[in-house]
Design goal:
By secondary structure, the protein is of the alpha+beta class. The chain has helices at about 5-10, 25-35; strands at about 15-20, 40-45, 50-55. A hairpin with a 5-residue loop joins strand 2 (about 40-45) and strand 3 (about 50-55). InterPro entries: TusA-like, TusA-like_sf.
Amino acid sequence: MDLIGRVRSASSGDVILLLSDNDQSLTDVSEWVDETGNELLAVDESGDDYGFYVEVA
């Protein structure tokens, strides 16, 4: 997972889908977007992995 690298190369308004099977990601991603100014648009918990939709600031 290289979320930070993807965000750095993305343009403002781009939406990145982060997939994770780690329960701690529910807390970590939420805290990370708060710290960075990016926006967590949605969390999909319907499959085996969590899907985090992050809009780049």
